[in-house]
Amino acid sequence: MVVRGAPAIGISAAYGMVLAAKAAVDAGHSSACSKTMLVAVNAASELLAASRPTAVNLFWAIRRMNRVLEQLLPTLGEGSVQAAETFIKGFSAEAVAIHDEDLQNNLLMARHGAELISALAKDGQAQPIVTHCNTGSLATGGHGTALGVIRSLHEQQLVDLVYVDETRPWMQGARLTSWELQREGIPCALIVDSAAASMMARSPRQGWVIVGADRVAANGDVVNKIGTYGLAVQARYHGWKFMVVAPTSTFDPAVATGAEIEIEERPGSEIVQIGDSRFAAEGVRSINPVFDVTPAALIDYLVSERGVINRPRRDSIAELKLGVD
Ligand SMILES: CSC[C@@H](O)[C@@H](O)C(=O)COP(=O)(O)O
After folding, report:
1. Model confidence at 122, in pLDDT bands (50, 70, 90)?
2. Angstrom distance (rounded) from CA 67 to CA 72
3. Which residues contact ligand 1 via a Cβ below 6 A?
4. Span 110-318: which CATH code?
């Protein structure tokens, strides 16, 4: 949990594989043969792949790095200093490209999402927004998914107030999102997760729930931080619009529905105490799934770098023609 947030997890895995390659070169005193390199990078990618099960960006980035590894390995031959330098340069370039592309995609998604909301805003009125977890520069290549859209809306003076779910149990909203929003001068208020429905009910205006995603299934179901599904139900009930913002590196065309996606379960210690301070009854059983599935039917808009899909469904997602590899 030092690095968290789907795109940031993928980017870090790519850089992690580069670090493993560099270590293999250093261990061979500035050179490495193709066999040593393969063993070292494979070991690192297996370790990285085992770090978190849900965010698909992790596996997507590892696959992408492995493809480049395959192309570059023959250039190492039996190992020379010069071949090792060229190899590391090429391998690092792919990790940097993954990082740069994510940032560019964040900027595109911010534009698509904000354009849509501004087009739908009656009389250019500023919107109340609920957001969940952390989807900003701390979770991505640098601008943010949902938070990127919120930033762009703020630039157009279209943000009335962002209600920031604290995001139990790891408090990404309280610790990270509120920090990012405050730093940018975006009006925000921290709420406990269970207050979101009341905020919607008492708001004089219907607004937006804007969240990110950790994996989008082929039918448009979205897996995101636990509590997202509840927000989608509440949004539909109160007539608020529900927007998911995720780059196509978060889409997984290999899984048919959200039910097939592994949901990370974390230790109960995260919910029976805060820091070292225990407040739950001794011995109580706890269940701590940290993601949930929001059915596609509850999603009004799915924003990727390729544009906005209204009411995502299997056919509209298939039109993106994302390869299964
Ligand atoms: C950054 S985009 C969306 C998600 O990755 C984010 O909402 C989220 O669920 C992060 O979970 P985390 O457990 O903090 O890695």
Report:
1. confident
2. 9
3. 4-7, 55, 133, 135, 139-140, 145, 172, 212-214, 224-225, 290
4. 3.40.50.10470
Which strand (E) or helix (H) includes residue 131? strand 127-131
| Domain boundaries, given as residue ranges, for the chain | 6-101, 110-318
Lookup: tokens for 261: 């996606």
Catalytic residues: 214
All residues at 6 or more sequence positions from 97 whose CB lies less than 8 Å from its CB, including other chains: none
| pLDDT tens, position by position, 273-317 | 988 899 999 999 999 999 999 999 999 999 999 999 999 999 999
pLDDT, tens digit, 9 for 90 and up, residues 52-90: 999 999 999 999 999 999 999 999 988 789 999 999 999
Which amino acid residue places its CA nearest to atom 9 of ligand 1? 225
How close is the Cα of 224 to the center of ligand 1, in Å?
7
Q: Are 261 and 54 in contact (CB under 8 A)?
A: yes
- Over the Cα atoms of the chain, what is R_g? 21
**pLDDT digits over 234-263, tens only?**
999 999 999 999 999 999 999 999 999 999
Both tokens assigned to 276: 């070292």
CA distance 110 to 116: 10
d(CA 56, CA 171): 22
Task: Please tell me whether the overall predicted TM-score, pTM, comes out greater than 0.95 for this model.
Answer: yes
In which region does residue 196 sit, left (phi positive, over 0), alpha (psi from -120 to 50) or beta (all else)?
alpha
User: Among 160, 161, 157, 130, which Cα is nearest to 146's?
Assistant: 130
How many secondary structure helices (H) and strands (E) does the chain include?
Answer: 11, 13
Q: Among 224, 229, 264, 305, which residue has the most ligand 1 atoms within 8 Å of its CB, making it the best to mutate?
A: 224
